[in-house]
Model the fold of this input.
Amino acid sequence: MSDDNHVLAANGLQVYFRVKVGGKRANVRAVDGVTLGLERGVSTGVVGESGSGKTTLGKALMKLVKPTAGSVLFKGKDVSKLSRSEFKKYRRSVQMVFQDPFDSIDPLFTVHDAVAEGLRILGVYSDRAELDQAVYRALETVRLVPAEDYAKRRITSLSGGQRQRVGVARAIAMNPEVVILDEPVSMLDASVKGEIINVMGQLKSVGKTFMMITHDISTVRFFTERVAVMYLGKVVEVGPTDEVVNEPLHPYTQALVAAVPVPDPSQKVKSLAQGEIPNAIAPPPGCRFHPRCPLAQEICRREEPLLREVRPGRYAACHFAQ
Amino acid sequence: MLVSQTRAIGVEGLNVEFYTPRGALRAVNDVSFEVYEGESLGIVGESGSGKTTLASAIIRVLPSNARSWGRVTVYGKDLGSMSESQLNREVRWRVISYVPQASQNALDPLYRVGDQFVETVRAHTDMSEKQVLEKASELLKHVGVDPSKLNSYPWELSGGQKQRVMIALALLLSPKIVILDEPTTAMDTIIQAQILEMFRQLKQFERLTTIFISHDISVIANVADRVGVMYAGRLVEIGPVEDVFGRPLHPYTQGLLRSVPDIRRKDGSFGYIPGSPPDLVNPPSGCPFHPRCSYAVEICRKLMPPMELYAKDHYAACHVISSRKDLGLG
Done:
């Protein structure tokens, strides 16, 4: 599933964190064998609950954490084997917007400082006027106008929605090919979420490749064309977002979709999966979802199902999906 | 319908002001509503709208830099006339329980779950330790936790289990009313669905009256019979949940509903309300929503609109509703 069309891809990626439990060494298997490619110009959602490994996957794609095994491919090349100049290109081309706009930007910064930070570190512009123009262009893209006025303001004088727009602007200022969004709107109030989503929607139309990491499948439905569903370090389902939401193939995805509340009192949530996500230190044998799965059979306790193409373009890791 | 005509809670002209270094901040502003026995009232609003302060004011657990006035009655009794010790003996836990936001994190890690039940209600009941534990184990079964967990420490429980324990704790002295503040916030979707299903079952068993506070409209749609919408400390709309969500009247409620991602919908617009909520130390004149409202006219800048009845049990506070043809009001 990794080909030339993929601007960024995980290939058999594993990320384990070493921990001590009761004096004994153990591994938290945060990401445990994920192969997933981002097609150029297509927005991909990565959906999962806390503990699914979705944020670690995003960090590994950004090379913020080191893979235990497997690789990250940027335009087909292993990022751990890039030359100095190629690596610099990758650093600039893959940007991330973080969850908390109050936490991820230095509160002492002006808006200009925040947006220019990455450009300065990589020495993109030697000329001050050019740097200013790049900052203003980014601010205009996220509709913080007049950009010259906003550039002078302190980060602390902005509302949450405005701060997150600065978060998007500082990623965009680098003119990246790929933008990884880690829960970009989950900290924001309902009435301003749409503002950020719409700003990013416009960037989609100019050919940026987005990956949206979130627990919120409703936002993914709105924003992405493809979706990968993660459970306990593994991708359990991949496919076109509409099809996955309308007719999920994996029992975990089915439970997730049925659990999403909608703003309509005539439709109540259904709880299809019992219990909670187990510990990633000792995941259940066989299919990792089997202890919570309403459809689990004997084989599920023994044999791990592989991600397979169940229908054209639709992948699921379940012995019984069809 | 389980709802009777007995008024469980009455709130009349309730105000809460905080003293801050920047000046007085009116967090709750002239709020009035009623909750009937057996009913679930949802209160929805964004951060800073005053919904949590409203709950603390009803049960009188406001911080010391706050001052409140107005009237709160519980089954006709005026809570304002009661002393602190009288409230503890006669009202809190026994008639009305409060489950604050993120309270599951307040369980003491050094005590077993069973001990927390015993300790928490000691000041409010004459029940023996044995009686408390018996009742606790029965309630844990009700909320879907194995009673053997009474012997566990809080850190041995998952987040979902802890929240269920908090709800069982709130029900220990068989209160008639429970106020829940963001009880499913920060929970994973599947766990949230389990808890929401549990609430629906509890209501059928216990004939509880609940006030359910959340920033999440879709969560409210799952649990409330009626819903009140708060903005900048004011109640701006209240009515039956089908009606308020199906035919919202206040421009703020309409904007909020358009901003909610809905998994059933792919297209259409993902709306938002321009601007952000006002600074409550220096609130706007007139209607607090007017700076963000696309319908605002001159009077909105001058005068706070009163709550008025527009459909059966459906009230809203807006000057322009009666002149709007698009709402289809007779």
